[in-house]
Amino acid sequence: MSEQEVAEYRKMLAIRVSGFDVPKPVKMFEDCGFSSQLMGAIAKQGYEKPTPIQCQALPIVLSGRDIIGIAKTGSGKTAAFILPMVVHILDQPELEKDEGPIGVVCAPTRELAHQIYLEAKKFSKSHGIRVSAVYGGMSKLEQFKELKAGCEIVVATPGRLIDLLKMKALTMTRATYLVLDEADRMFDLGFEPQVRSIVGQIRPDRQTLLFSATMPHKVEKLAREILTDPLRVTVGGVGMANEDITQVVQVLPSDTGKMPWLLEKLPGLIDDGDVLIFASKKATVDELESLLSQKGFKISAIHGDKDQASRMEILQKFKSGTYHVLIATDVAARGLDIKSIKSVVNFDTARDMDMHVHRIGRTGRAGDKDGTAYTLITQKEARFAGELVNSLVAAGQNVSTELMDLAMKDGKFRSKRDARKGAGGKKGKERGKGGGGRGRGVRGVDFGLGIGFNPESSQTASPSIPTRSSAVNALRTGMMAQFKSNFVAASSDSQGNTFSNKRPALTGFVSGGSIGGDINRAQTATSSVPTSGVGTTNAERSQRSLESQRLGARFDALSVGISRSTPFYAFSK
User: Fold this and answer.
1) 258 and 364 part of one domain
2) Alpha helix segments (H runs only) across 321-400
3) If you average pLDDT over every residue of the chain, what do you get?
4) Nearest CA-CA partner of 170 in 195, 145, 193
5) Is residue 340 part of a domain?
6) What domain range includes position 330?
7) How many domains does the chain divide into?
8) Neighbours of 141 (CB within 10 A)
């Protein structure tokens, strides 16, 4: 492909890349140069062509580069690091006794670790590559024996991996391929110290891959510290919901309306495929399981109080079709990859939008456009409704009138929305929002007059809406009066009585600074000029006159045009 074709292809797939010498994306798995055995395994899993994240990540990882991969849940990230891992291992010398692993994958939860383990086994079996999974809830002794027997790939949760490293069940001397999957979730669960400890025990010439659905500051910081010259690949928006999933939000008066809704809708949902229901509390999960079982539904539930063996057995029966409905807490929100799930029901809303995105990502996996996510929200959840509206809009989903009305009850959401629309507040009170509720507003510009008038408005505007010239005159008069009574040097950290060579600033004047911070500092600063004419020297009066001229010239410029990049704030009447 030519450079133009590459750019068009990335744009079509919503792929954004950053870094130097980025390899071109691939269109087919055949373009990757995989062995016939690996291509056979890919075909056996039903993969026809790479997903967007795979199109760009595969050539990057196969070239040996470090990568930061950011993509929505259900995008096929697992295959994007497992397939190159198999190739990487085949290129290494065979393991000797008491050596290994070569590839290390860290995941935040047992369920995700087990899911990655199953995927890795599917692709590595044809080449005789051994895969081990180590995570809590299973016998540590059995895991110790398995690791001692040797393996090329270890998939683990951070805590259990550190335990087994301390037991010397494995060494990291041969580890040259490290994957941190769902890095944001690992940090959410408090695994940052463990992750850093594991990274510190792996040789520095390793290849490191970091995949995440969102990119909070802590993960960004970790990536800068442990990756070498990485390429960053983003598919879609960071932390966005999967656009392949249809989202339906049902606004209910109270929690008592949830169960009737579920009983009415559940039979139809089961007809479309398997159903995954999320509840926020273990007690709610158990209650739902009991009530729905009494109604004759084939149902089961998992949460943190059930041991790992029971959870795995339940998941296996759910996959095999023994159960058609699974109820879970967020313990199953990550890594649960079951293609038969066609509907996700958020019986309780998630604790935050990131968790909501990962919950609904359990359907619509790897490009399947048949998934539907239902969210039940009550009148007391206005704050989350606002976040949900933003997420739906970003994902191109419909927003119902009922949901928007609920979201508008949240003051933070309402104020942000009004600010974007330029809707006015009270006169002289709200910055850039229009005097008396009229006008379009000018972001970052405030004359203390409730400015929001249209700069192109006629000179014969209504008295309640100041014209441009009257606003400038009022500003000039008010601030000149302030200048005469109290002058503060422009430098906020000035220590002496000498004036800075920088442009002077007034009490209540901020140039490119934050509202409040510099103002407060200015108000508490000691004036370097007397507040009256008594005791002033000729030099001081000359200095004040010079500053007055400069200030006047600055305000004269306002009659020509007001720069959006330099906000002016005044507290004149």
Assistant:
1) yes
2) 353-360, 382-394
3) 76
4) 145
5) yes
6) 246-416
7) 3
8) 10
